[in-house]
Amino acid sequence: MARELVYTGFITLDGSVDSPGGAVEGHPGGGWVFDTEFVEDAFALKGEELADTTALLFGRRSYEAFTPFWRDSEDHAAYRDLPKFVVSTTLADDDLVDGWGETTILRGLDDVAALKDTEGGAIFVHGSADLARRLGEEDLIDRYNLLMFPYLLPGGKSIFGDTATDGAGARVDRRTLVLRESEAYSNGVVKLVYDVRR
After folding, report:
1. 173, 169, 174, 191: which is closest to 182 by C-alpha?
2. Reduced to 3 states, what is the DSSP secondary structure of residue 21?
3. Which residue range(s) make up the domain with 151?
4. Is residue 23 left, alpha or beta, with left meaning phi > 0 and alpha meaning psi from -120 to 50?
5. What pLDDT score was predicted for residue 43?
6. Pairing of strands 53-59, 84-87
7. Which of 31, 129, 160, 183 is deepest in the core (most CB within 10 A)?
8. Percent of the chain scored above 90 by pLDDT?
9. C-alpha closest to that of 70 among 46, 93, 45
10. CATH number of residue 189's parent domain
11. Does the predicted TM-score (pTM) go above 0.85?
């Protein structure tokens, strides 16, 4: 049985995942996660994911952004010893960060598909908007764990592409998601967990 590939992230109502932590990340309207009233229950999904994660998958830019912080963060201590995979055609082994567990460079989506066919549990993708879009277009994502924030962010990056294929590579015009769970919180955040129906 193939390993489950889960995209997890913060998203705006219009589908943007761009710059949740601040405008310095790229979008002038960034910082929307920290501009939202903190309600602990709204972030419970993140804690639940820690128990389910057996490996992490990143695009190069997200790996380079997250690693310096997550490696030393006590909030992310459970990730330290997990296997990590970075999809990049340009990253070299010498570019990998020391002290954050075993990290493997994958050179393309065929390598991701092969990784899914190995033994083990769920692989989680954090951030990595461009990679997530490509994974979704190639029907490699099995589940979306989303925390939707009450903002519109015109021009932001989306994880949803303009084209999609089925598992055999044929173009599809629509992909069906099945709602696994949802919950709305007092700060306007909505948890949406969807399985991809095949």
Report:
1. 191
2. coil
3. 5-196
4. alpha
5. 96
6. parallel
7. 129
8. 77
9. 46
10. 3.40.430.10
11. yes
- The shares of helix, strand and coil residues in the chain, as percent rounded to the nearest 5, are 25, 25, 45
Q: What is the pLDDT of residue 1?
A: 65
Q: What are phi and psi of 133, to 5 degrees?
A: -60, -45
| Residues forming a β-bridge with 34 | none
What's the pLDDT tens digit per position in 102-115? 999 999 999 999 99
Cβ neighbours for 103, distance < 8 A, ≥ 6 positions apart: 83, 84, 85, 86, 96, 97
Over residues 147-155, mean pLDDT: 97
Query: Taking the CB of residue 50, how many other CB atoms lie within 10 A of it?
Result: 14
Number of structural domains the chain divides into: 1
What totals of helices (H) and strands (E) does the chain contain, helices first? 4, 8
From residue 26, alpha-carbon distances to 1, 62, 68, 127, 162 in Å are 39, 13, 18, 13, 22
Task: Write out the two tokens for 77.
Answer: 């201590």
